[in-house]
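Morning run. Coffee first, then this:
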Amino acid sequence: MSSLATHFAGGRDYLAACTLGLPPRATVAAVRADLESAASGRPDVVGASQAVEEARSAYARLVSAPLGDVAIGSQTSVLVSLIASSVPDGAEVLCAEGDFSSLVAPFAHAGRGIGLRTAPLAELARAVSPDTFLVAFSLVQSATGEVADAAGIAAAAARTGARTLCDLTQAAGWLPVDATMFDATVCHAYKWLCCPRGVAFLTISPEFARGIRPVHAGWYAGDDPWSSCYGTGGPLAPDARRFDVSPAWQAFVGAAPALALFADTDITATYAHVTALAARFRDGLGLAHPQRPSAIVTWPDATGEALAQLTAHGITASGRAGRARVAFHVFNDELDVDRALHALGVRGASDLSPFDGLVYAI
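And here it is:
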């Protein structure tokens, strides 16, 4: 059992961190306290601003990025559109087939003659050509759980001079990540990082950042935000903060303790825990093991029968692109695996009914 499990109030039969993470107790307490303070006429703007910087710092530690390379946002699609707005006219962007639309759509609709080309994830490195300006891909695929060959893709891009943009949304929180492998990364933290929705991050290398126009610049992008509230706002921040957007304060109040929780925990232990649970589930269903282990397991379910079976047994899972999808996180354990297998009719799995009235400790 993961040591992080004690920080969560629930998790039994919840196999959908790839859809929406569960908030830890500290996040719930922080948001409640902030709302109660605001409701009583004492909104804590200073505290919320501090939470933004605590969240930024924790995220930087988590993905091994220099603090000055981290910008805050609210959605990955907006952060991706920032990059898309500075892709040269007529340039080629290479994406993985079937990748999440928030990563792909901003380039597809950027106009200016930008050419979008796709290739299967397994062939993405080989598909990089001298004409490729940017390779954009998710480190872990939402629809299949497949883990990309990040090192191979980054190396192929480096050989041709292409830039790289990696979406960490389905990876950060369970998979060890080094954001400095890429020119830029984006991440929405409401999934595996268990933050409130509305907290996203961009990491960008200083070299790549010099060619990106701060098209979303507002008061929070200023070198001193509180002195940048009017007119043109004055000078922008000298580092990645110039790409900041005004934060959703209450979301960041909740995000700060969640991000600290993950940043201060041994990510290799988390990786071992969640991939072992996924492997146990794969073995139970007789599914092949992927070349790179994943915390997400998917299998064909065109009719939705498997998802319906899981749901009927009180198990929260998801279905994407004609596949059933389960995800194992820090609040799950082997009993979650066995109960899911039992729901799917696997012989030898736990014969405990999810409706037996027992309360299982996480």
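Residues 116 and 258 are 36 Å apart (CA to CA). Good start to the day.
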